Amino acid sequence: MLSKNENNNIKKSTKVRTNGEQKILAIAMKKEGKSIASIAKELNKTRATIYSWLKLAPEKLSRNASRNRIMMDSLTSSRIIELYVLLARPSVRELKERLNEIFAIKKTETQLRFFLKKRGLDQFKPSSAFFMIMNLKVAEKSSSKTKIDT
Hints:
Layout: H1 4-14, H2 19-31, H3 36-43, H4 47-67, H5 74-86, H6 92-103, H7 109-118, H8 128-149
Helix pairs in contact: 2-3, 2-4, 3-4, 5-6
């Protein structure tokens, strides 16, 4: 028959956790108010390890959070692409300003640059046919305005 301590050690060893899971668990346990010694004992780590995990936790969490790319919804993505094409490959600064002005979409220049590069649009150059179509549309709009005015 096993003693209580031996039984606890067997239970702990069967719960295999990665270091990342243990770090998250240690942070959560500390937030619950557990002592460093009890956390170290439960996770089978030294107190120094737990202290270093807790010390680095806010810094690492904030650094990782800033690296996570916020996913854009499909409507925002399509509006960025649409405006990029309609403005005939504007500068990133101009694209940013027009997105904010027309659609009230606020993105940084870095986010837009990354978005365009990821989709291969940073190398996009409209063909001459595109400009002919755009000129026809502009001409149609101006002729319809003069008909309304007269």
